Amino acid sequence: MSTVRILFQIHERDNVGTLLHDVAAGAEVLHRGEGSSRTLQAGQSVKSGHKLALCSIACGQPIIKYGVPIGIATAPIQAGEWVHLHNCASRYDQKSSHLDVDSGAPKETRYA
Fold it and tell me: How many Cα neighbours within 13 Å face the side chain of 7?
């Protein structure tokens, strides 16, 4: 029996959803929220709690979560792709697009 992987859309205007489970690249995820129940294919392996695009988002377009813009796409993003530091920048912290994708630490920080 396979486990259903859920992608939850918080607000009807959101163009990203939050994963409730880890997903592998190519896995089908069930998009739930605001009356929606459809499947998307994950573009890459993504951990629970991270965002996937619900639709294509052009470079320069807002990333919308909670019904409000939380960032700007810095590259084109396809439906099912991971939305994170590598393809979006915060509207509130200009340094965010220069942070390490895995740790979130500033790239200029050196660890011994």
Answer: 31
| pLDDT in the model for residue 1 | 43
How many H-runs (helices) and E-runs (strands) does the chain carry?
0, 9
Q: For residue 19, what is the enclosing H or E element?
A: strand 16-19
Which domains can be identified in the chain, with CATH numbers?
6-98 (2.30.130.110)
Q: Token pair of 9, please?
A: 């859309």
Mean pLDDT of the chain: 85
Q: Residue 37: its pLDDT value, please? A: 78
- Distance (Å, whole) CA 112 – CA 91: 32
**Backbone torsions φ then ψ of 85, nearest 5 degrees:** -60, -25
pLDDT range class, residue 67, cuts 50, 70, 90: very high
Q: What is the distance between the alpha carbons of residues 87 and 77, in angstroms, rounded to a whole number?
A: 7
Using the predicted structure, report yes or no on whether residue 34 has a pLDDT greater than 80: no
* Token couple for 37: 């129940």
Which residues neighbour 58 within 8 Å (Cβ) at sequence distance 6 or greater?
73, 76
